[in-house]
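Data card: per-record layout.
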Amino acid sequence: MTTHLGPTRILIADDQEDVRSGFRLILGSQPDMSVVGEAADGLTAVDLARALRPDLVLADIRMPGVDGLELTRRLAGPGVPDPIRVLVVTTFDHDSYVRTALHDGACGFLLKRSGPGLLIEGVRAAMAGDILISPQLTVRLLQTLTPSAPAPPTRLTPLTARETEIARLVAQGHTNAEIGMTLSISPGTAKTHIANIQTKLKARNRVGIAAWTWENGLANPTPQN
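The structure for this 225-residue chain is written out next.
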């Protein structure tokens, strides 16, 4: 994957024309993004990706011919000599799909119902070398990967009380806007807090914050007596 200048060049692969049109409108409205191609099936998407060499392919899971998982493997999987970034955006939230896509090189896994804000954030995260997963999927995956027993309440934490509160909301799958509404702060303030939390925890992204929070038994609110 080579470094690029100018807007992120995006190829949209989805078998539903209305979905492609919606994504094109959302992404095309961003000054740092440009849609350079569309495909209604996986095989066409693979061929177009190899011909156009976009910076990123948005791929649905279920498409005619070659599905999104196979597309990801062909374009970004292990052993691909010149991989292309693939961001999976789908209605299907099966854990096996998430794990397979990420194992085969996907740079994110988003649910269509997550909304346009997360789609834009996912594209930018992918271009920054990060991985973004829809919050509701993050929560479910972490619940299966981390022990259910809470950590001792005396465990030391580098976070302030407010940062711990925000980390807990991140671990529960809330977006910046939802965190802002819950705590009566602006989404920008929530984003600043999250950046500070990432620095303190040396976490690469929200998934790292969520994992740390679950592993330390801080993901669930403290019961009130």
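Known properties of this structure: The longest helix spans residues 187-201. Residues 147 and 215 are 7 Å apart (CA to CA).

See the next section for split statistics.
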